[in-house]
Amino acid sequence: MRHLIFALGICFVAFVIAAACYAGWMIHRGFSTRSAPGALESSLALSIRNRACPSRFRSMRNPVAVTPEVLREGMEHWADHCSPCHANNGNGETMYGRTMYPRPPDMRRKETQDMSDGELYYTIQNGVPLSGMPAFGTPGDNDLDSWKLVAFIRHLPSLSQVEEIQMEKMNPKSPEELDEEQEEENFLQGNPAPAQPPPAHHH
Amino acid sequence: MKRRTLVAAFLLLCASVLLHAHGGMIHVMGTVTGMTDKSVTVETTDKKTVEVLFADTTTFVNGSKPADRKELKIGDRVVIHAVKVKDSLEAHEVRFSQATPASTH
Predict the structure, then answer these.
(1) pLDDT tens digits, residue range A135-157?
(2) Could you read off the pLDDT of B4-45 as tens digits, one per residue?
């Protein structure tokens, strides 16, 4: 018994020292979302998130039948609302996704595709605390659009390049981006380049 | 000894591994002046020479249709959306066309 208390005491002291070192290091380096969460942090957060999804949602199956129309609606919705962080193809490689903490997961991979329909729906409806994922639903609204998104998420691993090109036309764009897209299109069609072309630039 | 190892392992577990990512997409617009299996060289519309590397995930679009890298030729007009990786540019998407400059008369 005495040994157990001693071991627990050591663990507690180690935990306090580690927490103090971590806090000190955080204060010293400032805050930034350029780094990605470590393996332990990710694993802990995922484990807690998975357990926090109510069991009645976990066992839910998508009530919307998957038809080409439903996939089309889900695609339009995804391209408009989700792609800025998740990318059209779901890999998360976007300006926002690359520096978000935690990074949006690659929706095509097993970790996401293994989630039940209900878990995906619950995540869309309620968001994920301490991440960039907001709640898109209101409690009890049984939003069919979110179920259509679940159907589209299931389709992401087999998304074709033709569909990706279609989605680029559906992405939200600022007036400047629309102008620039038009300039690029004109250039590709053989028209002269703009008089004052913007050199290689970011957005 | 065993206790010390346990404490060290615990502290190590608490440390986070940092990864760095780059933000922003860079647009390169111009004419293809050189090609290798790994990269494309573009003379931009403001007469600068830029080399952009291909990645396994780079997609190619000819006009409005998906294309193969082999379809891209010297002299093609190109718009490349790329990300900066260290000191290089890595292509995310390469849109190109064989359009000739429109007549000016």
Answers:
(1) 999 888 889 999 999 999 999 99
(2) 544 444 333 333 222 222 236 899 999 999 999 999 999 999
- Spell out where B1-105 has E strands: 26-35, 39-44, 49-53, 59-62, 65-67, 77-85, 88-97
Domain B26-97 has CATH 2.40.50.320: yes
- The verdict on residue A36 lying in a domain is no
Out of A18, A38, A202, whose CB is closest to B26? A202
Domain spans of chain B, in order of start: 26-97
Give the nearest chain B residue to A36 (CA atoms): B19
Nearest CA in chain A to B20: A35
- CA distance to partner chain A, nearest, from residue B70 (Å): 17
Query: Which residues in chain A have Cβ-Cβ distances shorter than 8 Å to B50?
Result: 200
pLDDT of A17 reads 94
3-state secondary structure of A55: helix
pTM for the whole thing?
0.72
In a domain, A29, yes or no: no
Would the CB atoms of B101 and A95 count as touching at under 8 Å?
no
Compute CA distances A9 → A4, A6, B7, B14, B25, whole Å. Answer: 8, 5, 11, 18, 51
Total structural domains within chain A: 1
Average of per-residue pLDDT across A15-36: 88
Interface test with B, best of A188, A202, A203 (most B CBs within 10 A): A188
Q: Is B22 on the interface with A (CB under 8 A)?
A: yes
